[in-house]
Amino acid sequence: MAPPTRQFHRLSIGQDMPASRTPRAEGQPAPTQGHRDEGDDSSSAESESEEEGEESAESSDDESEAGSKVRAHSGITYDLSHLDTESEAQAMVGLMGEFDVVNCRASSEGFDFQLLDRPRVHIGPDSPTCTCSTFQDRPEGACQHIFWLLDQLHGCFLSNPPSTEVALSHNGRPVVRQRIEDLLTGKLEAVANQLNWQYLRDEGDSRTTAMTRVEKVRDVLSAFTPTILPEDFRPDLVETTTPARTAEQCVVQGDFQATIFRLAVHDDGVRSSLCKAMPAGACAAIYFDKIQDHTRRLLAGFDRYCATGEIPSNPSSPGGGPVQIDQVFEELRRSVSRIRSHIGFRAPYGFEGAAKALVFILDAISSRHKDPLDGNTWGRTSFQGEDEDQRNLYLMLIGDPDMDLEQDADLFVITALEALPPASLYQFIDELRDIRGKIEVNRAPKVFLYRLGDLIRSAELAASASGQKRPAAGNSGGHSKRTR
């Protein structure tokens, strides 16, 4: 039914509109303005009815066209007008819904995405597939998981969503210039980091860009312990992802921790729940805090041993033997090596924690240019027959001015700091300047001084370019607020 105002659509301001209709005398000519005879009324009514029908049809078309357009969470607006009713319903659920990706991986056949509610979506050169019942019942179309996943992926490559609607095909693919599998080639790990999805690499892959599934589970479980690092967590727990185990086969009688470990390795739901409770950002912050605390306890125990002869336990092996000079060198180098490796493992998380731990270690060693046995109270003159320079932590780890080092030499702590984004070092510039002042006085190797100075300059330039301000003292460390 047309709105009441439609009957006034022919009126205009200033038009003659008599207050009453005057009967026309016999022989009087028909009125030409503001008056109609019965025939005119009938014709006008028919015309008005036709116009109402046309406008109603146009309104219906406009509503239908508007209803076929959906703006998804990625910011992309999709045109669903080419889909059948069932496909359109699946697209609406997918584009407006939310799903969780447990993990993803690249293979020679394409890309696989494991979702939390069990379905696995595969994207390759052919149409995408899904293991859910909806897709299995109608494989010629696409399910809500495929529509959702393809929107998430395209959103990573379209920083500025198109102003016009993107058409959707029945198999879930947006009709765009470049296919998603081409865009993902060599970039899935970066996309996974951007979307906070777990990226899995093959366990036989020696690259250091990501953790294996077993390593990730060990990392998460060790994060719940106060001092144990993932590398040292339950070395007796050896597990692989093949062959797969059922939940019942994961049970280890009398060992709850081992049972959870196996379940997390083999069950996507258990592993996803653990990762939600202890996300990647939190694991990274905890790991680097543990490394720093481990180093602090190591040096404190060594100092007590040198001064008083008190034999502490080796922090890396609770209940282990005494801390000797060779053990200290080995542990310090191992800690720096672990930080350097985990900067790559955990990127883009943990940069601040890694920088804090590395700066702490470098500062501690730059302050130990001395004989550690000097002035001891128990008469010790040597550990194992070495001279005073051979037990000097500063000389053995940083070096003396006579050392002839190559420009690209692997330098203690410095090489690891160079693996960090320069902007992440800006809040530690004051500490780095103090360290540089100490080692200048102690005549460190020229290459060491030069590369430390270059790190400081790079941090200043990066911070200046981004307008970064140094945070207030006391807010630069710890993991009181976990990063998700």
UniProtKB/TrEMBL annotation:
Protein name: Uncharacterized protein
PROSITE patterns documented for this protein: ZF_SWIM
Gene Ontology MF terms: zinc ion binding
Taxonomic lineage of the native organism: Eukaryota, Fungi, Dikarya, Ascomycota, Pezizomycotina
UniProt source species: Penicillium atrosanguineum
Cited InterPro entries: Znf_SWIM
Assigned keywords, A-Z: Metal-binding, Zinc, Zinc-finger
Domain of life: Eukaryota
Region of interest (Disordered), residue spans: 1-73, 465-484
Biased composition (Acidic residues): 39-65
